[in-house]
Amino acid sequence: MKRLIEEVQQSDSIYMPVPARITEIRQLTELESLFSIELPHDVMLRHRPGQFVQVSLLGVGEAPISISSSPSRTNGIFELCVRRVGDVTGALHRLKAGDMVGIRGPFGRGFPVQQFRGKDILFVAGGLGMAPLRSLINEVLDERGNYGRVLILYGARSPDDLLFREELAEWANRDDVELHLTVDCPDSRWEHCVGVITTLFAEVEVFPRNTAAVVVGPPIMYKFVIRELEKINIPKGNIWLSFERRMKCGVGKCGHCQLNHLYTCQSGPSFAYSEVEHLQEAFS
Amino acid sequence: MPKAVLSDWIRRLQRSYRVVGPVERYGSFVFDELADPQELRLVYPPTVLPPKKYIVPPRETLVNYRLDGTHIAASIDTQPTVILGLHTCDLHGITLLDKIFNMGFDDQHYQARRENTYLVSIECLETCTDDSFCRDMGTASASRGFDLHFIDLDDVYAVNMATRKGEKLLEGFHHAFDALPSDMKRVNTRLSEKWQKFAYRLDFDIYMLPELLEKSYDSDLWNELGEICLACGMCTQVCPTCYCFDVKDEADLALEEGHRVRRWDSCQIHQFAMVAGGHNFREELAARQRHRYMRKGKYQKDAIGMVGCTGCGRCASSCLVHIAPIDVFNELYAREQAKQDAELMAGEVAA
């Protein structure tokens, strides 16, 4: 067995995608689907939560997509939660199970799972931010004994925009997970909070000394959530963020993902807040 | 090497290599393949595009494939190429590109092309344009980075053979001779005479540049540049150390064959830092100008140990509103000095 990244690095070109098969497509919301992807039989993904792959469609192009499945649940098949928003993702949504895509990666630095051991973990997900966070959440839940409390705050535009609703129901039923949901636009059946993600902070009690917060969401969300986390005194080094940027190469060359002096595809996409707090382009 | 045999040497090279060098075209100078060795100009102002175009081409195929997925193969260009007459500023530019493309993940396309590229530089003996400031940037000369380096000694060229690749270019050519001690003396005289002709143009020393830029991150100057910048991206196209690229797929008309290509891109263009959802991380022109200057003067120095500006002046010459790095650096310095003076005054008044 070879790791995918070795397969890519040992090929004639670092830009050469490895052919992989879509085994299943599950529609999650109007815009988002979950793609199950199978690599060639002698290649394994071996990723860390928070990493991404470059997904390519011949004739269309390539797009960076975060990995949604946890390493603990990736046996030959991994999952990508993809929003239909651009050329590549639009074309991806027109494919069916059995079709081929190209994969390069996994790229970037994942979340420092080892550093979270023994800590309470506060997950804060906004919208599509749940796609990469789900990888880490499931990794944590599959090794539940290694961690303290697990709190999940998740905000979406409407109940219909919530991702992974079956899993949300499972998490809600577990007595070792504290799940809090909010939406901007509730429907008549909505029983949870209404409002932006920060409104959920009133619902939870967090012990800052022993808490790691992992925050993933749209760019606008970060400064508001960070303000809340600072209010409850979570140390900057224990606040972890993941940044979306337009990686064209994934290997630290093309320049598109630069955030001040950092290449997000190499130094990130996950960063401790203490690493980026002074960087204006992190929160622009 | 006697000047009289230069053309013979080039003709010899042309049997085994694509030979390119500075030539005059429509009143400007460009690097182009030499049809006739006589075309070569070894005293010339900076070319329109730097020689990076032979190492990181403006458009380069990475992968060729059949659209039905039945065939896919990397496209690696190994054409042996000799670049003649490189100014040392451009040589520094190539050294910087080498660092980038060999750092972290190997870029096999770059590496293959670079391995097969032979660099023959020439010592500049006069400054070339009003926009250049190579003396300040430490690029007016070079001690390495070339395979062969030429120094004009009027009737002959002194040739510094620096690498095995350089030796290969002269192998079997019997009209060049080993230098005598008297030749070495002429080289030293020529070189030491040269320096007084290159004026310092920065108002401060280059080693202060990264720190100055760091202090100037919130300077109003970026807004002022953003006001006049047209976001055409010309400065990055002509820059010997700009390498950022876009990757696109192209299909042929029959929709059978496709190519994944990379093309020069520019951080000055509006869409450069835009993500699929439409958010633009560098929406403002001021932010893009700042990014370019921070990168040239600080980020690259921090990351790879080399300042990203060679002082060639091409960006200034090609800028429609003449944003010139020498002016930008000096203006930042003047404002920083004024700020420090004001703080000093305020301190004295308070005391």
Description of the structure:
The complex is a heterodimer of chains A (284) and B (351). With 284 residues, chain A is α/β, with parallel strands linked by helices. Chain A has 2 domains: 106 residues, Elongation Factor Tu (Ef-tu), domain 3; 130 residues, Nucleotide-binding domain of ferredoxin-NADP reductase (FNR) module (Rossmann fold), CATH 3.40.50. Chain A is built from 8 helices and 17 strands. Chain A is globular and about 55 Å long. Chain A starts with a strand and ends in an 8-residue tail after the last helix. Chain B has 351 residues and is α/β, with parallel strands linked by helices. Chain B folds into 2 domains: 180 residues, no CATH class; 145 residues, no CATH class. In chain B, 37% of the residues lie in helices and 18% in strands. In chain B, helix 7 packs across helix 12. The interface between A and B is large, with 43 and 52 residues.
| Poorly predicted spans of chain B | none
Helical percent range of chain A?
10-25%
Shape of chain A: globular
Number of separate strands of chain A: 17
Major sheet attributes of chain B: 6 strands, mixed
Describe the structure using short key phrases.
heterodimer, A: alpha/beta, Elongation Factor Tu (Ef-tu), domain 3, Rossmann fold, 2 domains, 7-stranded mixed beta sheet, 6-stranded antiparallel beta sheet, 21% helix, B: 351 residues, alpha/beta, 6-stranded mixed beta sheet, 12 helices
